[in-house]
């Protein structure tokens, strides 16, 4: 079965774990995604949590886990991991957060705002890896919107590797379907409630 482009199977399971530690409270929400892409950025699960630091300050955290192990060097041209955010419940993406690699092999995240078609730099996010299948992001809530109490989000990945016959990529241009894509959820968004 071809596994290129948009995935077919929707498999979202809400685990809903409440964690308490000291003054910080985090509501963890986690979803699973089907084994529905051929690349090494085939999303297996994606999660959100938040830590309230004071009355107004809040840190948002997102984790993405793939089915397969992947190397730090696989993030780069033609290969990406991105989170899209809908901050006003209109079904449209207003923010995107993408992983970028530093020359020393470390990562950072860059957030852009799409304001009625005008794309503006919004800020940097912390990005790190807990293990060889995952990547995590943390950033202040105000980077999405000050005082936000819930938002929709969706993870997307694009992967190509000249040794992978399903997703060889198109370094010289051509058909974008030679890349492998994955989405979690497969359509629409999931909601992270910040209460
Ligand atoms: Ca998947
Ligand atoms: Ca998927």
Give an overview of the whole structure.
There is one protein chain. It contains no helices and twelve strands. With 195 residues, it is an all-beta fold. Strands 1, 2, 3, 4, 5, 6, 7, 8, 9, 10, 11 and 12 form a twelve-stranded antiparallel β-sheet that branches. The N and C termini lie far apart (42 Å). It is globular. It has one domain (17-193): Immunoglobulin-like (Sandwich), CATH 2.60.40. Bound molecules: calcium ion (2 copies).
Q: Are there runs of 5+ residues with pLDDT below 50, and where? A: 1-25
Structural category is mainly beta
Q: Which term fits the overall shape?
A: globular
Indicate how many domains the architecture comprises.
1
Structure annotation, total helices: 0
Number of strands: 12
The largest sheet, given as strand count, sense and whether it forms a barrel, is: 12 strands, antiparallel
Q: Could you name the CATH topology?
A: Immunoglobulin-like
CATH architecture: Sandwich
Overall pLDDT score: 84
The fraction of residues assigned to DSSP E strands is over 45%
**What helical percentage do the residues reach?**
under 10%
Annotation keywords:
195 residues; Immunoglobulin-like; twelve-stranded antiparallel beta sheet; disordered N terminus; binds calcium ion
How do the helices and strands line up, and which of them pair or pack?
Blueprint: E1 17-21, E2 24-32, E3 43-52, E4 58-66, E5 80-86, E6 95-101, E7 107-115, E8 118-128, E9 134-140, E10 150-159, E11 180-184, E12 190-193
Antiparallel strand pairs: 1-2, 2-3, 3-4, 4-9, 5-6, 5-10, 6-7, 7-8, 8-9, 10-11, 10-12
The chain binds calcium ion (2 copies).
